[in-house]
Design goal:
The complex is a heterotrimer of chains A (266), B (257) and C (270). Chain B is of the alpha/beta class. Helices cover 37% and strands 22% of the residues of chain B. The chains are: A mainly alpha (266), B alpha/beta (257), C mainly alpha (270). Magnesium ion binds next to helix 1 of chain B.
């Protein structure tokens, strides 16, 4: 694929490096594949189509009557996502200002700490946060809300600090030149410039959080995932399908809402 | 009165942008600052309100020495100096009125400015200035909804809302068409004359500079190479500032204008 | 001054940014407040359990600050190897499959029928979350990293082909036109006009997806699809917070490395 004439403007040395790179990637892939599948029981894999057919026959039709029991968990799920987003955003805003190179009070000490908080929060999936929190504060909605909040901090703060770094310097200078104080410069020079990005990021994260909060119940952090876990444990596949349908519907609607809102803002 | 003494600025990159610049501006005088691109005009203007930190030398406004002030003292002196920018530098997403009122930020508390509850005199002054620059109907529009000429007039209103004792004006017309440029220059001049306000106008257009200012300072590679009335700005002086060029055509333009 | 200054209004109110009608605005505020109160009301918290947990929370913080890599190192390294191999293989397979699907889902170069098929595959892959796919694949293929590999490959297809298709739809039409005018075949068109334009971003996105897949590989272990997630799950279940802290730090460290190196590669590619 890479031998097209377009790439010929590279020197032949660069070409060799490229080829060695691709070769290395292929070798790495083969190696990883072997390590990964060394304990795989291929009989199970070969059996998969049958299993799939079996699963399919057990999953359909969904148990529609189960829907009645899902409204309250759904309400909880929405609340986990929304309250969690609120919590995350509230904490993320100051962190973003500490992390942005043009607003941080200290590039040497404060900025690295803020950046570490961001990367730590982003590296750890909300389900893992939930796992931890359930073990610490016990199962329930609160664990879910805090898990969503903790995961959202990094996401929101990262995008927001990038927006802060992209603000137009001249607008900020003009406010500075009037003799405004630091807080006033923030309020008049920086905030108006990042506000649309801020709303967009928050709504975007809310949309993602709706998705994520549907499964937090698998580890006991509340919401519709609790029902999913219970149905899986009892192998009640028609209920599982029903839950999937509800999750899918919620996700589609929230995606639509978020797209609409972001469109209206920008 | 503004006096600048032995001002030098060397940027971190090593560019010597200003080299031992000294001049004095008495109150009420409008000075045109000309010079080729990179001569240090913007640097000079920005050193005066310390958006750029001078390397050495001193600057005095009235009896305040601007160089060497603490942060809070610097704020107090910045509010006495109005600044107008080439790219207007309005806060695009704020309304016109908020932009004009932001000229009072140095005078009001944070909470007052946060809730946009400015003192009655400030609001009245802002409305009066908007009327003066002909933008009364645009007060509630967002700044990015205005045309270039309108934006620059908001910039002027913002600077004057400060009740400044000095105006620093960095290429006010560079982004405007010739007609609007002249209108804006005329407006600026009238405003300065009404208030007896001294101003430094950094300007590329020699014709405009001649037409509108009473004194011209020529800057070349960070040094003052000319300081005198526009009438003395002849071919040899222009060559000294800008280098060799056929300046005759310029004379012609100037008469036509 | 043209007019006397005292003739001007003494106050000014900023016009509202959203929802200009005041009744609508206030009812929306009221609604939001009502929701907030109700939502907080339904979060019923067992405060004595939370108070009890503070001690465990503190132990977690301590465990995170003084991680224990050694006592569970065998489990950790096994989980880590599964996660890493799973990440790499699924990213490669996912991208290889995503390229044809992405091309097929680009409106400007694919035939109508192909376009709809490819778009449906993308929609299916994107609307199902990794965890849900993992549950199904574990049920079909049994426990272990193979199910995880399939999950991540499937998710990668949806992600990559959607972005690739959007990129292709955004490419500069004049270049495609120019190549078309030479009477080239469809494959030549892709090769000469499309590939050079989307290649740098494709590489950037691949690295980004590699990063995502690694993070996801740490999660799907919770439902039995292999990887470090299972190890982490066990550590947390046993309240071994110092081992859990070690695993989390490793995850953070690897994510930091991928992020840093992908930034480097992206700059090199462009
Ligand atoms: N922030 C900065 N950092 C480093 N060097 C700078 C900076 N700003 C300006 N300079 C340098 O200082 C010198 C003077 O620049 P300045 O912007 O003051 O020129 P100018 O006369 O305003 O030019 P122009 O007419 O193009 O606006 C130039 O050599 C420029 O490269
Ligand atoms: Mg300049």
């Amino acid at each position: 694929m890479m031998t097209t004439p377009v790439w010929q403007h590279r020197t032949s040395r660069a070409n060799i490096v490229l080829w060695v790179g691709w070769l290395f990637l292929v070798a790495l892939f083969v190696f990883c594949w072997q390590v990964m599948t060394k304990d795989t029981i291929w009989a199970f894999v070969a059996d998969a189509p049958e299993q799939a057919a079996d699963l399919g026959s057990r999953m359909f039709p969904p148990r529609w009557s189960y829907l009645d029991k899902l409204w309250v968990p759904l309400w909880d799920t929405m609340n986990i996502a929304t309250l969690g987003t609120l919590l995350g955003v509230i904490i993320a805003v100051p962190i973003a200002f500490l992390a942005a190179s043009n607003t941080t009070p200290s590039t040497l000490f404060v900025r690295p700490v803020a950046l570490f908080i961001i990367v730590a929060s982003r590296s750890i999936n909300s389900l893992i946060w939930a796992l931890l929190l359930v073990s610490i504060i016990g199962p329930g909605l609160l664990a879910g809300i805090v898990a969503i909040g903790l995961r959202s901090i990094g996401f929101v703060a990262k995008l927001l600090y990038e927006a802060i770094e992209e603000t137009e310097k001249i607008q900020i200078e003009a406010v500075t030149a009037t003799g405004a104080s630091g807080a006033q410069i923030l309020n008049y020079g920086i905030v108006p410039q990042i506000l649309p990005a801020f709303y967009g990021i928050s709504v975007f994260r809310w949309d993602i959080n709706i998705r994520e909060s549907t499964i937090l119940g698998l580890v006991g952090a509340g919401g519709i995932g609790v029902q999913l876990q219970a149905s899986l444990n009892t192998l009640a596949w028609p209920q599982v399908t029903m839950i999937f349908v509800v999750i899918l519907g919620t996700v589609v609607i929230s995606e639509w809402v978020s797209a609409k809102v972001r469109h209206a803002i920008i | 009165m503004l006096s600048v003494n032995h001002l030098s600025k060397t940027y971190a990159a090593g560019d010597k942008a200003l080299d031992d610049v000294t001049f004095t501006i008495p109150s009420g005088q409008v000075v045109g600052l000309i010079g080729p691109s990179g001569a240090g005009k913007s640097t000079l203007i920005r050193c005066i309100n310390r958006l750029v930190e001078p390397t050495s030398g001193s600057i005095q406004l009235g009896d305040t020495t601007i160089t060497g002030l603490s942060t809070s003292e610097l704020r107090a002196v910045r509010r006495r100096i109005g600044m107008i920018f080439q790219e207007y530098a309005l806060v695009e997403r704020l309304t016109v009125m908020e932009n004009v009122l932001s000229g009072r930020l140095g005078y009001v508390s944070f909470w007052r400015s946060f809730f946009r509850k400015f003192p009655a005199e400030d609001v009245q002054k802002a409305f009066a200035l908007l009327a003066r620059v002909g933008l009364t109907d645009h007060a509630n529009k967002r700044a990015d909804a205005l045309s270039g000429g309108q934006r620059q007039r908001v910039g002027i209103a913002r600077a004057l809302e400060q009740d400044p004792q000095l105006l620093l004006i960095d290429e006010p017309t560079a982004s405007l068409d010739p007609k609007t440029s002249r209108q804006v220059m005329r407006l600026l001049l009238e405003m300065c004359n009404e208030r007896g306000l001294p101003a430094i106008i950094n300007i590329h257009d020699v014709v405009l500079a001649r037409q509108f200012t009473e004194r011209i300072i020529g800057l070349q590679a960070g040094k003052i190479v000319f300081d005198g009335p526009p009438s003395e700005l002849d071919e040899s002086v222009l060559t000294r500032i800008y280098g060799e060029e056929d300046w005759k055509t310029l004379e012609h333009d100037s008469e036509a204008a | 001054m043209v007019d006397k200054i005292s003739s001007f209004p003494k106050t000014w109110k900023r016009p509202p940014v959203f929802f200009e009608s005041a009744p609508l605005r206030y009812s929306l505020y009221a609604l939001a407040l009502l929701w907030f109160v109700l939502a907080i009301g339904t979060v019923d918290v067992n405060w004595s359990r939370v108070a009890e947990g503070m001690d465990r929370g503190w132990r977690f913080v301590k465990g995170f600050l003084t991680p224990d890599f050694t006592s569970r190192w065998k489990d950790i390294s096994a989980g880590l190897i599964e996660s890493l191999t799973m990440t790499l293989t699924s990213t490669v397979v996912g991208i290889v499959l995503a390229v044809p699907i992405g091309i097929g889902a680009a409106r400007n170069i694919a035939p109508k029928a192909v376009y709809y098929v490819c778009r449906s595959i993308i929609a299916l892959s994107r609307s199902l979350q990794e965890i849900i796919i993992a549950i199904l694949f574990v049920a079909m293929f049994g426990f272990g990293p193979f199910a995880g590999f399939l999950t991540l490959s499937f998710a990668t297809i949806g992600f990559m082909s959607k972005l690739l298709a959007e990129d292709i739809e955004d490419i500069d039409e004049s270049q495609t036109e120019a190549i078309r005018a030479t009477g080239s075949s469809w494959l030549q068109l892709i090769n000469y006009a499309v590939q050079p334009q989307v290649m740098p971003r494709l590489i950037g996105l691949s690295l980004y997806r590699l990063d995502i897949n690694f993070r996801e590989s740490a999660v799907i272990g919770i439902v039995g699809a292999g990887g470090i997630g299972a190890t982490l799950n066990t550590a947390i279940d046993r309240y071994e917070f110092d081992s859990a802290g070690a695993i989390l730090l490793i995850i953070i460290f690897i994510v930091m490395i991928t992020e840093y190196s992908s930034g480097y590669v992206r700059r090199w590619v462009q």
